[in-house]
Specification:
Blueprint: H1 4-30, E1 37-38, E2 48-60, E3 67-71, E4 74-78, H2 80-83, E5 93-103, E6 106-110, E7 117-119
Parallel strand pairs: 1-2, 4-6
Antiparallel strand pairs: 2-3, 2-5, 3-4, 5-6, 5-7
Length: 127
Amino acid sequence: MFERQERVAILLLCSVALTVIGAHLVLSSIGKQPFARPFNDNSAEGELVTVQGNIDQITFTQSGGHMIMVVNNLSVFVPAQIAQGIIVQKGDRILVYGLVQTYRSKKEIVVNSAGDIRPLVTENSTG
């Protein structure tokens, strides 16, 4: 059958695979919140940040159909494939997770999935 070294190698491979799967499940369940910092003017390019507030403006790019939302005077870029599955409107209060990117010398947040945009319930809307 298998030699001793082959059995050890297979056991190690299975152990590593189970560890990676377990880590993925744990990290998926806790989400991005523990790793994201609130956005500020000093946020670095590529940093995972969060911003919450009301949507002041929503526009779509002429080419590509990408959505650009303005939240707290900050542009939030939503790629077209993600924007198709999102229903938001001006005035909605949202929480956004994304990566900081500079576009035309201004920082913006780039969203990576539809789950990175979450509606926030205000006290007035619960009654």
